[in-house]
Each structure stands twice: as structure tokens, then as C-alpha cells.
Amino acid sequence: MKNNKFETQCVHEGQLKDTLYKGAISPLYMATAYSYEETDRYPRYFNTPNQVGLAEKIAALEGAERGLIFGSGMAAISTALLAFLKKGDHVVLQNDLYGGTTNLVVEHFENYGIEYSFTEGLSAHDFEAKIQANTKVLYVESPSNPLMKIVDLEAIAQLAKNNSLVSMIDNTFASPVNQNPIAFGIDIVLHSATKYLGGHSDILAGAVACSSAHMEKIFAVAKSLGGNLSDLSIWLLERSIKTLSIRVRQQNENALTLASYLEQHHAIEKVHYPGLSSHPDHSLAKKQMKGFTGMMSFALKANIHRTTFEKSLKIIQPVVSLAGVESTITIPAITSHKLLTPEGRKKQGITDQLVRFSVGIEHVEDLINDLNQALEGAANEG
Ligand SMILES: Cc1ncc(COP(=O)(O)O)c(C=O)c1O
User: Fold this and answer.
1) Distance, CA 321 to ligand 1 centroid (Å)?
2) Contact present, 323 and 224 (Cβ < 8 Å)
3) Which residues pair with 146 in a beta bridge?
4) Is 72 a pocket residue for ligand 1 (Cβ < 6 Å)?
């Protein structure tokens, strides 16, 4: 199975055999109590049949030796960080991260005696500048939320190796369809599987993929923290990932068309999409990504009434999460980045007119029409 192509792995890797009835899909094993005569099988040890099967699929999709599935993206992220950071250690994190990860670090790490620094920018030099004698981990997120900035994965991996550090990436926005960080030397790949892996806005889950040696350390913490996903959701997530490749490729294609459309629209100030040649990191994105994702953000011109725009959309829905098959928008200033001060948001380039757009798999012409009617309506009001 491991030698099969990505699309085939999405469908078949880690699938459990239905030896009893010879059904074509994985049977679901919901037991939380297994005989101790055979093994210490228990859901919180991440070793039920469905957990093990899906972990193999995730590992294959990321080109990793091992995978582990969690109850949320934050369970995966917090467990991985705590597996490599103890009292007195230090972590360097990208300045531009998912808000929940920033909150975990800023609100809790001091209680555990863990030191941290956020970078000034996203280059490897920016990370290097923050490395201290007690640094143990470099943490990145690429593309970043919501401005779709790109971090040079090869350079970060090399920097980590040169300094004997563990490198971690939140690969949620790219998904394994578009980016496999392990191929560039990154040690640990993290996902909010709630997003592209689940893809239907109905499963909350997380995932980790890495080497067996790193996984041993993560597992040792994971079984105590207890952040596993229930087998029922594991089974649903396995089903969702069967269509991951075709979903995300359609989202990539729609997003590229829409980004080009929006870029020339009179109501739009700027489009942030790594697939556009106007994006400052376009060539880096081309080097390390196979597609540019269904995620983008765009700034409305000052004369466009943002709330009218949001309320006028008929197909595209205003929601907090992302990466479902349905197109959605979010306003970072009032959702994901609302805890920052207005100055902090301004410093990061997150204005009140910025819209984050998660492109779905609908027909692209319908999405263009929906955006256009909402933009024209909001322009008349502006
Ligand atoms: C980039 C990124 N990482 C991590 C998370 C956290 O994932 P979850 O909500 O599944 O815990 C999110 C959630 O929005 C996210 O967007």
C-alpha cells in the first residue's frame, strides 16, 4: 500500500478488512473494553483498530513513519509541544499563528516554566535571531492565517538540524494534498483535521505525523493527556479522507480562478493568495507546494460597506471555521484575531476590511456571481 500514489492511499491506506461479512469499507469497532489476555488495547492509548488504521493513512499521506489522531487540532498541537518542552526549555514560534496556538503559549506556558519567543518576521534569519541556549523547538505555520504568508520549510528544517532542535509545522491550511513538509526535512507535522482532512464541517479532530522516534515521545505524553478522538469520529474521518484529494484539487482550482477574478475587481484593494504572481512569496510557494489551497484573504476597498457585503452573499456563508466543501468567509478582525489590540492587528496587516475566504467545491461561476452581486451591492452603500 505504501508504494501506491496519493489518491489511492486516500482511499485504501489503513483500511480495516471486514473479514466477517466482506464489506468494502472499514468495520467500526466501538469497544472501550478489550480483553487483557491479548493486549492493553484502550481508546486513550490510541490503539483501537480504527485509530490504528487511520493513523496509518495519515502517516502515508504525509510521508511519515507514524501518525496519531487526536480529538482536536489543539489537542494534537498542545500534546506535541509538551512532548518536547519541559521546565526551563524555550521555543521559537512564528509571529503569525492560529490564535488558539498563540493563546496556548501566551496563557499557559509560563505556568509550566516554558519560555518562548515570537519571531519578528518569517525568514529563517528571523527564527535564528530568537534561538537561545535553552531552545528546543522551532514552530511554524505555512501558509499562515489569514494573510497566507509562506515560510521557507527547507531553510527552517536546516536551521533546526544545525542547532539540534525539533521543527514543527501546522500544515492545516495546505493539507497533505498541497504540501508534505517532511519531504523538506521538517520533523513533526500537525493538522487540525477539523479542516481539510474532515472537509465537511462536521468533525472536530487533529493529527500528528512524524518519525517513529519522535512519535514515541509524543505518545508518552498523549496517553496521559488523553486527547484521543472517539472511534465513531475516527470512522467518519476515514470516510472523509477518501475524497480528500479530489476535494482539495477542486478547491485549489476554484481558488486560483477566484483570486484572479477578485484581483481585478474594482471593489477589491488587495488579494492575498500564494498562487498569484503578485504574492510576495509566490516563487517559494511554487517550490514547496503542489497546489495553493482553497484559502485566501482579500481586503475590501474603503468605500465598500463590509457588513452589507457579508449580509448580501447568498451561497457563501459567514462562519468561524474553514476548509469545508461549502464556501465560507470570516472577518479575522472580529473572529480569529479579535483578542489582539487594534494596533497589534494593524501591525500584522489585519484591517477591519480584510475578509478570509475558504473556497468550496461549488461551480466557480456561481461563486463569482455571488461575490460580484454582494460587492456591487456593498459598493452602492459605501
Ligand atoms: C491553522 C489552524 N491550526 C489549528 C487549529 C485548531 O484546530 P481545532 O479547532 O481542530 O482544535 C485551527 C482551527 O481553526 C487552525 O485554523
Assistant:
1) 8
2) no
3) none
4) yes
Q: Determine phi and psi for 159, rounding to 5 degrees.
A: -60, -45
Name the CATH superfamily, with its identifier, for domain 245-381. Aspartate Aminotransferase, domain 1 (3.90.1150.10)
Of 312, 313, 264, 260, whose CA–CA distance to 282 is shortest?
Answer: 260
Residue 355 is placed in which grid cell?
Answer: 475578509
| Domain 6-241 is found in CATH 3.40.640.10 | yes
Q: Does the beta carbon of 204 sit less than 6 angstroms from any atom of ligand 1? A: yes
DSSP H or E stretch at residue 378: helix 364-381
Q: Are 26 and 176 in contact (CB under 8 A)?
A: no
Backbone dihedral angles phi then psi of residue 56, each to the nearest 5 degrees: -65, -35
Dump pLDDT digits (tens) for 305-322.
999 999 999 999 999 889
Nearby residues of 186 by Cβ (< 8 Å), 6 or more positions away? 140, 153, 156, 157, 160, 167, 168, 169
**What's the CA dihedral at 198, 199, 203, 206 to 10 degrees?**
40
Centre a 10 Å sphere on the Cβ of residue 36 and count the other Cβ atoms it contains: 9
Q: What is the pLDDT of residues 27-52, one digit of tens each?
A: 999 999 999 987 899 999 999 999 99
pLDDT (tens digit per residue) in 152-165: 999 999 999 999 99
Q: Taking the domains of the chain in order of start, what are their residue ranges? A: 6-241, 245-381
In short, whether 273's Cβ falls inside 6 Å of ligand 1 is no
Q: How far is the CA of 7 from the centre of ligand 1 (A)?
A: 24
208 in helix, strand or coil?
Answer: strand
Quote the pTM value: 0.96
Q: What is the pLDDT of residues 169-188, one digit of tens each?
A: 999 999 999 999 999 999 99
Q: Do domains 6-241 and 245-381 have the same CATH topology?
A: no
Instruction: Compute, in angstroms, the gap from residue 352 CA to the centroid of ligand 1.
Output: 22
> Ligand 1 centroid vs 98 CA: distance in angstroms?
7
- Name the helix (H) or strand (E) containing 173: none
